[in-house]
Fold:
Amino acid sequence: MKYRTSDGVELYFEIAGEGKACLYLHGGPGYWSKSFQHFSGKLLEEHLQMVYLDQRGCGRSDHSPTQDYSLNRLKDDIEELRVFLGIEEWFVIGHSFGGILAVNYTLRYPERILGLILSNATLHMLNSFEYQIKRGSDNLGIMGNELPGDDINILRDTYYSILSLLLEKGEYYKYQYKDLKNKNKVDVVDQDGLNSDPKFQQYVFSSNDYFQDFTTVTVNIQKPVLVIAGEFDHAVGPKHHLLFKFPNPIVKVLNSAHHPYIENELEFTKIVLQFVNH
Structure:
């Protein structure tokens, strides 16, 4: 199904299950919601009314003709979807990059939030990029690879250089998954319909809009918060969640990498449902 935003972009969503509403915000930037729905949907939908959204420019949603992929625009998209569906309050799950959207949406519309769930979320992309650059340099045996400071363009170029070498050597999957079999499962799901706009990721990775340190604003969120991290998550960093400053979060570290809903789906589902039920 699709709905039309106030600036005329049609965004794809699916809704399934019964219970309290729960919105899933995917990562990437530039990925989609289908893989999360495929692996965790049936388990969560037994207890929640799940809403899966492909962000503008991502997956099955339309690309923005004006290339408006700003943080404010994406927050508007989320709120307009809530109004379109007639949902008063919902839980929001943000995975990876989706954590930035989830936190900022919660800050703007706290009255619409039943609880915030962050799964393997980065809230400071500069920190996560620096972690991958350092780890990638070590894995590749590259010595003296200095971090570029706060220059986003140099940081992005350095990151892509390391990423290309890791992909060339077949090593990058280890940053996302503990087991290559799990990556292969996701690749099967992703092979049909993932039509994301490359300009979405380009915008995010070149914009100060997204490269702020959002860990500093977490202290202002008074809603219940569940933080899920992966012991082997080398995409955002296994200790990245320690930077968060939520007043009273529930924190769970799972035996997984960046995608616990695939690698540890029963434990992931159990933790989420315990949180929403209590």
